[in-house]
């Protein structure tokens, strides 16, 4: 099965799930460690997507100015 990257919204949803799991206190230390690592990776990916989107929007707005 191909490992397709999550969309921003999917990643945010998964982060919210992980936070709920962490807050519940029902998981063992090993599982908590893995969940925190997963959440950190998802946050990093979300930041990259936000920066990329910000760049694309900025570029599009600059192109609009040049055409005006």
Word description of this protein:
By secondary structure, this protein is mainly α. The chain has one domain. It has 2 helices and no strands. The chain has helices at residues 8-24, 29-67. It starts with 7 loop residues before the first helix and ends with a helix. The mean pLDDT is 90.
Q: Outline of this structure?
A:
The protein is mostly helical and 68 residues long.
**β content, as a range?**
under 5%
Largest sheet entry: none
Find the structural class using helix and strand composition: mainly alpha
How many helices does DSSP assign?
2
Range of helix content: over 70%
Name the helix and strand elements from N-terminus to C-terminus, one letter apiece: HH
Q: How big is the Rg?
A: 17 Å
- State the oligomer: single chain
How many domains would you count in the coordinates? 1
Shape designation = rod-shaped
Write down the overall mean pLDDT. Answer: 90
Q: What low-confidence regions span 5 or more consecutive residues with pLDDT below 50? A: none
Report the count of strand segments: 0
Q: Termini, distance in Å?
A: 48 Å
Key features of this structure:
single chain, 68 residues, mainly alpha, 2 helices, 82% helix
Topology:
Layout: H1 8-24, H2 29-67
Helix pairs in contact: 1-2
